[in-house]
Design a protein that fits this description.
single chain; 11 helices
């Protein structure tokens, strides 16, 4: 029997669709959004208002078709206001980027936020990105593990689900899309999932990368690229990563094109990965940044209501076919004991 506080349980249900699957849109990019928007508008024409309006319109139009949306308050405050009230709200809780002068890519929380504050702002969950390398020196791992333990405890006290997004990396092989990194990525992703779904972290949803570099899978590779994995090897990695999880996990799109993300999800589902949904970001809306930057708000709305909607609905159809309800990890809803937590006003 899984025990879960009422606040967490109710919010998890709000974040999921009627099937218990998290069909969520991610648009909490900050540094990368600035770069994309500057390129789209031209550096001389760019203002921060472009990003504020862009996030507002994406949220306003696409939350009609998703179960929840991930936004940041810094650039996405207008998007928070504009979202469909039926859609759950996940707010970013980490500072963007990391200090390049400190070893270990250490995570930092927004200094002017707390989970109690996010709850008061209407958040149904908080998301924290953590750069994670299971082969780091133990002293770096200790810092990250303690950070996550504190974070999980804070989420328990605030009665809010915690989503953690571990991005794997390597200090020696620094190009994350190189064949050399592709060879070591499956092991890193699998061991990261094994560690971070342990009970001590109190993470409710792990938002993970697929365990392979998908455009280097035999039969799926881009023209001119040599395959690193056979389909059988890739299938085994997906299954092994899924079996390593002792808590629900969802996939992130990691900036791949929409068609590649769809292929990844279908491949995962066909080969036994029990994922509980997605947080699809750039795969859903990336092409529209350029349209907005060059043609303005009306052209963006038209794109969102046609191509954007289609991108979301194609992903939703895949989820209907292959995704597993978040509560299935605990043996189903009947196996969850919901209790009331007295949270301070």
């Amino acid at each position: 029997m899984k025990r879960m506080s009422r606040g967490k349980f109710d919010k998890m249900q709000k974040l999921a669709n009627a099937d218990g699957v998290i069909a969520a849109l991610a648009i909490d990019q900050r540094g990368s959004m600035k770069k994309m928007m500057k390129a789209a508008t031209g550096p001389d024409n760019f203002t921060m208002d472009h990003i504020y309006e862009y996030k507002k319109l994406v949220s306003q139009e696409l939350t009609k078709y998703v179960s929840s949306i991930l936004l940041d308050e810094e650039y996405g405050f207008m998007g928070i206001e504009a979202k469909n009230p039926q859609a759950g709200l996940i707010l970013s809780y980490e500072k963007t980027g990391y200090d390049v002068n400190t070893p270990g890519r250490l995570p930092e929380i927004l200094p002017n936020e707390s989970l109690q504050r996010l709850v008061k702002k209407g958040a149904d969950a908080a998301k924290v990105l953590v750069y994670y390398n299971p082969d780091e020196p133990q002293e770096i791992l200790d810092i990250k593990h303690a950070f996550l333990e504190r974070l999980g405890t804070e989420a328990q006290a605030a009665d809010i689900p915690l989503f953690v997004e571990p991005i794997v990396y390597d200090d020696e092989i620094t190009d994350p899309i190189s064949p050399a990194f592709a060879k070591i990525k499956p092991s890193k992703v699998i061991r990261t999932i094994q560690e971070l779904t342990k009970d001590q972290y109190h993470i409710d949803i792990l938002k993970v990368e697929v365990p392979v570099q998908f455009n280097l899978v035999e039969g799926y590779q881009k023209e001119g690229l040599e395959a690193v994995y056979t389909q059988e090897e890739a299938a085994n990695y997906f299954k092994e990563a899924s079996e390593a999880a002792t808590r629900p996990f969802i996939y992130l799109s990691a900036g791949v094109p929409a068609n590649v993300f769809r292929e990844e999800l279908i491949f995962a589902g066909q080969h036994g990965a029990t994922f509980s949904g997605i947080l699809g970001g750039r795969a859903t809306w990336r092409d529209s940044v350029d349209i907005y930057g060059k043609q303005g708000a009306d052209a963006l709305i038209e794109w969102l209501d046609t191509t954007g909607k289609e991108n979301v609905e194609e992903l939703n159809a895949i989820l209907t076919h292959y995704a597993t309800p978040w509560y299935a990890f605990y043996g189903g809803l009947e196996n969850i004991e919901v209790f009331d937590l007295n949270v301070a006003d």
